[in-house]
Amino acid sequence: MKKTKQENIFSSKTLSYFLQLAETMNYTQAAQILGITQPALTQQIKKLEKTVGAPLFYSIGKKLKLSSAGNIMLKSTKDIYEILNQTADEIEQSNSASTGDINIGVLSSIQVKVFEKFIAELYKKNPELKINLRMLTRKEIWESLENNRIDLAIMYLPDSSIKNWKPYEAQKIMSDDLMYIHHNEKFAGKDKIKFKDTLDRPWVTYPEDYFLDSILKTEYKDQLLDSPKSGACFSTPEQILRFAVNTGLNTALPSSFMIDKDVKKLEDNNTWVARLNPNINFDLAFVYRTNKKMIPRVGSFLEEFDKFLDERDYLTRLKDNY
């Protein structure tokens, strides 16, 4: 039987192809992510444009842009995915609290040992509950939340990259701030160091667009200062601290990461720790789509984690060796 116009437009494959191209605005990159050839993707988009009767993309030089019809299609596609996600969540709400999968995305710059300990204890109580934990970049976390690939995100807030909070909720885990790690003997023993005094040498930093990199750059801009020159970038605090100690570069890392570090040992290596002035504060939190908490196993996971921290708080658990 011949497909209707609606079936041609709204097939799952057609929508996924269009959405991926709209997200990347690059045929080559979108085709690689989708696992198809660029000509195949181009053909599918042309078929879709023929069906709707209007171009969805246009080019300015080498840059791809959405046409007015493309913007309408993008909104409709996101609306359809939202309905599908809500439907999936409603079906999941009838399931058990102690069976099934929970998919969790963790910002790759966050320590996970407290979460690993909690997940291990939860598994002992509920062996039929499978926790899938993945380390993701900031961009990957939001794409995964929007596309319903993860149930929970563990990330830092506030995040300026979030433009629409309406579909999401957050559950705070703890408050955190940044510690400045430096090698300037002149400031050894100082509790607070001004931003203008942190530019004496290059830094080892998080990659560009990582949360902590972004808030640091914003603060330097607010202080009417240039950001420190970056001599190297790493995605985890362990890598950054090792590199800073071994090379004499400065850096800034979360207090929660530095809490169990041997300060005396660092000082023996001409490395000192202080707070920045003004201080940079942020929260560690669970972020999830509003309906997710209604799924029994997800709601139970969040409740059990609260009980876990009631027994011993997050910062105390970070000091444990396990």
Unreliable residue runs? 1-9
Distance between the termini: 62 Å
Overall 3D form: globular
Quote the beta fraction: 15-25%
> How helical, in percent, are the residues?
40-55%
Q: Tell me the structural class.
A: alpha/beta
| Gyration radius over CA | 23 Å
Number of helices: 13
Number of strands: 12
What composes the largest sheet? 8 strands, mixed
Task: State mean pLDDT (0 to 100 scale).
Answer: 87
List the secondary-structure elements in sequence, H or E.
HHHHEEHEHEHEEEEHEHEHHEEHH
Features:
single chain; two-stranded antiparallel sheet; 44% helix; disordered N terminus
Task: Walk me through what this model shows.
Helix 2 (12-24) crosses helix 3 (27-34) and helix 3 packs across helix 4 (38-52). The longest helix has 25 residues, at 68-92. The radius of gyration is 23 Å and the shape is globular. Strand 3, helix 6 (113-125) and strand 4 form a beta-alpha-beta unit. It has helices at residues 5-9, 12-24, 27-34, 38-52, 68-92, 113-125, 138-146, 211-222, 237-247, 255-258, 263-268, 296-311, 314-318, and strands at 57-60, 63-66, 100-107, 129-136, 152-157, 168-182, 192-194, 203-205, 230-233, 251-254, 272-277, 281-289. It is an alpha/beta fold and 322 residues long. Strands 3, 4, 5, 6, 7, 10, 11 and 12 form an eight-stranded mixed β-sheet that branches. Strands 1-2 form a two-stranded antiparallel ribbon.
